[in-house]
Amino acid sequence: MTVIETESLTKRYPRVTALDRLSVGIEPGVTGLVGANGAGKSTLIKILLGLSPATEGTAAVLGLDVATEGPRIRSLVGYMPEHDCLPPDVSATEFVVHMARMSGLPPTSARERTADTLRHVGLYEERYRPIGGYSTGMKQRVKLAQALVHDPKLVLLDEPTNGLDPVGRDEMLALIRRVHSDFGISVLVTSHLLGELERTSDQIVVIDGGKLLRASSTRDFTQATASLAVEVTDTDDHPDGTRAALEAFTAAGLTAHADGHLLLVDIADESTYDTVRDAVAALGLGLIRMEQRRHRIAEIFKSKQDQEGGSRDAA
Ligand SMILES: Nc1ncnc2c1ncn2[C@@H]1O[C@H](COP(=O)(O)OP(=O)(O)OP(=O)(O)O)[C@@H](O)[C@H]1O
Predict the structure, then answer these.
(1) How do beta strands 262-266 and 256-259 pair?
(2) CATH of domain 226-293
(3) Is CATH 3.40.50.300 what the domain over 4-222 is classified as, yes or no?
(4) pLDDT per position in the chain (315 positions), as tens?
(5) C-alpha of residue 313 to centroid of ligand 1, in Å
(6) Which helix (H) or strand (E) holds 31?
(7) Which of 30, 63, 112, 141 could join 121 via S-S bond, C-beta 3.0 to 4.6 A?
(8) pTM of the predicted structure, to 2 decimals
């Protein structure tokens, strides 16, 4: 079952192709949509909401065709826009109640849902103060609350960590995780920062120049490239133990490279551990560390970009 499905989705503006034959299926859970600025993330969200027509291709949200079912999709989906769009003179409560009413909730349940949602996003104490006096983090929480207030099945969050300091980012990401774990709401969250979504997301979709680069579970993403980090001592016989071990690993048929004092060995299969241990023992070196290291997503892309000679700002 997929919550979002696109097929050859293309969006051409007069001077740029923002989405280029994008075909992707997104399952329930938390999905990170990652891409550099201008990759096409916001364009995709607007098409999914039925607010902007695709030039070619098709897309379905919760099984509904975006070309014909926009209003129904928007009743089932919450949207947190990227830019600050909050009225400064009203309180969070007034604004979120208003948005709940816009979504069709009757007055009493709009007020109840608003109180619950603001409590959930951690804005309960400040809920009667005008939004104009809020910090960036508080404004982001109001935007999240209005996306959740009508109890959607799916929320589309466009760069919710933008402008936040590291602590604010972590809090927002934890909150996003809870949107799914506490309420079972699926989440599509965008970011231009590859690293920040890997702890939050079940799946990662990476787009670049409107094209799909990769879509897979976060676990597959990082595990497929697992490596063994090995650190060894120097000895009188081998004053550069790292170099001696690297040569021995290569001679034993392993793929390895040095990163300072660390040797990073590709894990071909279970026997890699024994081969490393035996090679180190044969040289008479001490083994300081041998541990499996999952690559961070950012590293995978850095090496991919280095290979391609690219210098994009997704990091
Ligand atoms: N209404 C528009 N008219 C013309 N070009 C547009 C329009 N909206 C977006 N674009 C262009 O389409 C491309 C993709 O933009 P989009 O906003 O979808 O990217 P993004 O990944 O969301 O990046 P950002 O995080 O910077 O918003 C960009 O080159 C952008 O300039």
Answers:
(1) antiparallel
(2) 3.30.70.100
(3) yes
(4) 899 999 999 999 999 999 999 999 999 999 999 988 889 999 999 999 999 999 999 999 999 999 999 999 999 999 999 988 899 999 999 999 999 999 889 999 999 999 999 999 999 889 999 999 999 999 999 999 999 999 999 999 999 999 899 899 999 999 999 999 999 999 999 998 777 888 899 999 999 889 998 898 887 776 656 788 999 999 999 999 999 999 999 999 999 999 889 999 988 888 999 999 999 999 999 999 998 876 555 555 655 566 555 444 443
(5) 15
(6) strand 30-34
(7) 141
(8) 0.77
Do domains 4-222 and 226-293 share one topology? The answer is no
Model ipTM value: 0.95
Q: For ligand 1, say whether the CB of 70 is within 6 Å of any of its atoms.
A: no
Distance between Cα 148 and ligand 1 center (Å): 25
Task: Report the b/e string of 191-201 with b at 16+ CB within 10 A.
Answer: bbbbebbbebb
Nearest residue by C-alpha to atom 12 in ligand 1 = 18
Q: How far is CA 151 from CA 108, 146, 148, 200, in A?
A: 15, 10, 6, 21
Domain boundaries, the chain: 4-222, 226-293
Ligand 1 contacts CB of residue 41 (under 6 A): yes
216 Cβ inside 6 Å of ligand 1: no
Instruction: Return all residues near 263 (Cβ < 8 A) that are at least 6 apart.
Output: 229, 230, 231, 232, 242, 245, 246, 249, 256, 257
Q: What is the best residue among 19, 33, 42, 49 to mutate for testing ligand 1's pocket, by most ligand atoms within 8 Å of CB?
A: 42
Q: Is 35 near ligand 1, meaning CB less than 6 Å away?
A: yes
Distance 13 CA to ligand 1 centre (A): 9
